[in-house]
């Protein structure tokens, strides 16, 4: 999808960090933006910045170039209402970016609370809300009968275990596998991809132990993440793709095609044959053989 004036995007977690950077970068392309966030002060500020960035592009537009909607993404009704407001304002939805995130400050096995404001909230914000946002966005896009792109913001914590924050790692791993499983939506013109950056110098990223950050080569710039997101939006071949961004290796698609072959159960051709109960290309994983 070519990023051009007239498209519209809804960004959750758009009031700060990566979400804010994406809202502003989209504005510079002339995209109408809905900033969805729980922080009203920061969200309105970002919406104002977006309006200034594309003021000349949309000087004669009948609608504002950006709106802010206060929303707790874990509230399904509120999230659905945010999408309806976006569509009512801009007439459709071309891009959805699920970027809202939450980091739990305590280890789950030391947490004696019911988890409402700690590990359970991390699961609801980082995983459940991403699934819900993707679900709503795909339904809107399919009803429009035109192409759409969804970008889910994952993390390097979803690619390998993070022992210092197991719940965050688990939720991001869920986002990665959920997104990769949606590759077949491409047949409906909808591409869903996931972006997995290492530590970015944002308020959330700066909570990470600096020793670990330095061991991985230091912080990424938000511009690196924006570049990766734009690649996933614009490259029509990317559906169910996972883009890993790091200081050490730059942008790498994960897993590589060679590694993927090690665990694929069947190819697309053999899948068609499966209806005839023939499975010629099943590859038994090594750990099954050991068992």
Automatic annotation (TrEMBL):
InterPro entries: NAD(P)-bd_dom_sf, Sc_DH/Rdtase_CS, SDR_fam. Signal peptide: none annotated. PROSITE patterns: ADH_SHORT. SUPFAM superfamilies: NAD(P)-binding Rossmann-fold domains (SSF51735). Pfam families: adh_short. GO terms for molecular function: oxidoreductase activity, acting on the CH-OH group of donors, NAD or NADP as acceptor. Keywords: Oxidoreductase. GO terms for cellular component: cytoplasm. Belongs to the short-chain dehydrogenases/reductases (SDR) family. PANTHER family: 15-HYDROXYPROSTAGLANDIN DEHYDROGENASE [NAD(+)]. This is ARP protein (REF). It comes from Setaria viridis.
């Amino acid at each position: 999808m070519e990023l051009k004036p007239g498209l519209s995007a809804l960004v959750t977690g758009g009031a700060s960090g990566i979400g804010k950077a994406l809202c502003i970068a989209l504005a510079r392309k002339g995209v109408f933006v809905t900033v969805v966030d729980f922080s009203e002060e920061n969200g309105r500020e970002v919406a104002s910045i977006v309006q200034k960035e594309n003021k000349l592009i949309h000087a004669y537009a009948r609608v504002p170039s950006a709106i802010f909607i206060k929303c707790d993404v874990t509230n399904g009704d509120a999230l659905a209402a945010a999408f309806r407001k976006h569509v009512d304002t801009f007439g459709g939805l071309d891009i959805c970016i699920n970027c809202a995130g939450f980091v739990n400050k305590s280890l789950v096995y030391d947490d004696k609370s019911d988890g409402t404001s700690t590990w359970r909230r991390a699961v609801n914000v980082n995983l459940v809300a991403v699934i819900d946002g993707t679900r709503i966005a795909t339904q809107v896009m399919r009803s429009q009968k035109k192409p759409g792109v969804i970008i889910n913001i994952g993390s390097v914590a979803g690619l390998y275990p993070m022992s210092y924050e197991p719940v965050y790692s688990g939720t991001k791993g869920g986002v990665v596998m959920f997104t990769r499983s949606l590759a077949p939506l491409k047949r409906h013109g909808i591409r869903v991809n996931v972006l997995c950056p290492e530590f970015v110098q944002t308020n959330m990223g700066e909570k990470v132990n600096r020793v670990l950050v330095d061991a991985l080569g230091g912080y990424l710039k938000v511009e690196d993440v924006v570049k990766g997101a734009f690649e996933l939006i614009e490259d029509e071949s990317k559906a169910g793709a996972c883009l890993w961004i790091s200081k050490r290796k730059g942008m790498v698609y994960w897993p590589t095609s060679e590694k993927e072959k090690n665990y694929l159960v069947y190819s697309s051709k053999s899948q068609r044959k499966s209806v005839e109960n023939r499975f010629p290309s099943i590859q038994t994983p090594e750990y099954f053989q050991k068992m």
